[in-house]
Design goal:
- This protein has 162 residues and is mainly α.
- The protein has one domain.
- Helices cover 86% and strands 0% of the residues.
- The chain has helices spanning 2-35, 38-71, 80-110, 121-161.
- The two termini are 17 Å apart.
Length: 162
């Protein structure tokens, strides 16, 4: 059972991290390249990011629950790999329900014009929030890479002790 639980831990974290990397480096640039229309490409990226956030948060919770079940201790939630996953979940919630929600409220008034005025207060704030989302998602990726590294390191130290 421990091998299956370890597999679930690695798989859940790897799937989430892979989704983040795919969205940032393949899907988002591809949407803007293929569609050529910023509004449609933005809608596609929003759709993908929103769904990735839900899947990612689920993967994070699955990781944490599996970890507690495998170790039989809630103290395993304060191990470095678990803390990285908690950071990922927190940043994902901030991105989805704070930053992206504000971006959506700014997007509505800008829809009435085909090309937003680049120095309008709405556009300036939207652009600032977009940069913030990119930073937050980068933080999720960094925490994911760190979490995977720590998980491998933890596995190695456990196998040398056995």
């Amino acid at each position: 059972m421990t091998t299956l639980q370890r597999t679930i831990e690695f798989l859940s974290l790897s799937l989430w991290l892979g989704g983040e990397v795919f969205l940032a480096f393949v899907m988002a640039p591809g949407a803007f390249y293929v569609l050529g229309n910023d509004a449609q490409a933005g809608a596609m990226v929003r759709y993908g990011l929103g769904h990735m956030h839900v899947v990612g948060a689920f993967c994070g919770l699955l990781f944490l629950v599996t970890r507690v079940m495998r170790t039989g201790k809630f103290a395993s939630l304060v191990k470095p790999a678990s803390l990285c996953v908690m950071v990922m979940i927190t940043l994902t919630i901030i991105s989805q329900y704070t930053v992206m929600a504000k971006m959506s409220s700014l997007r509505a008034p800008m829809r009435s014009i085909h090309a937003p005025v680049m120095d309008s207060p709405e556009w300036v704030e939207f652009n600032r929030l977009h940069h913030l989302v990119v930073l937050v998602e980068g933080g999720v990726m960094l925490a994911g890479v760190a979490g995977l590294h720590l998980l491998v390191r933890e596995l190695r130290s456990n196998s040398t002790e056995a």
